[in-house]
Design goal:
50% of the residues lie in helices and 5% in strands. It is mainly alpha-helical. The protein starts with a helix and ends with a helix. The mean pLDDT is 93.
Length: 153
């Protein structure tokens, strides 16, 4: 396993985080502002990028788990910084180090597939749906696809 510092450096490089000019376009496009009542700079794409660049321990930062990985921040970034790639790499590092209290495992295969804060938002939106809809959220998309294929074969 690579040291945490090396994993963070890899995430910075892959995402192009050093190119961030702090324009705030990623924050303006980010759907998290509408999803979470306590949305703030700490959990915003710009905030995560800045914390990464100044050397904060972002792998252990709970805020990396709020991102939906929608890519809207990257789509509007004038420098092409990939917020999604940064978040994915930081989450991978967290999972590798077993910092997983905010990650959910698939009930079928055991792989991590969903951020707990995102799941909470989705569950809240779907609370009036039948139980089978909510149960579908217990499995990752790959396993869900497999279940559907077997059921409909």
């Amino acid at each position: 396993m690579k040291p945490r510092h090396d994993r963070i450096e890899e995430a910075k490089k892959l995402s192009g985080a050093a190119g961030c000019v702090e324009c705030g376009r990623c924050v303006a496009a980010c759907p998290m502002a509408e999803m979470y009542a306590d949305f703030g700079i700490e959990m915003s794409p710009r905030g995560i990028i800045k914390k990464t660049l100044v050397g904060d321990d972002v792998v252990a930062d709970r805020n990396i788990w709020y991102c939906t990985e929608c890519n809207s921040g990257t789509d509007v970034c004038p420098q092409g910084v990939s917020c999604r790639d940064l978040i994915r790499k930081l989450r991978e590092a967290a999972i590798e180090e077993n910092v997983v209290e905010n990650a959910k495992r698939c009930r079928a295969c055991g792989r991590f597939f969903l951020a707990v804060p995102v799941e909470g938002f989705v569950q809240d939106r779907l609370k009036s749906e039948p139980a089978n809809v909510l149960q579908a959220l217990e499995t990752c998309p790959s396993c869900r696809r497999e279940i559907y294929l077997l059921r409909n074969a």
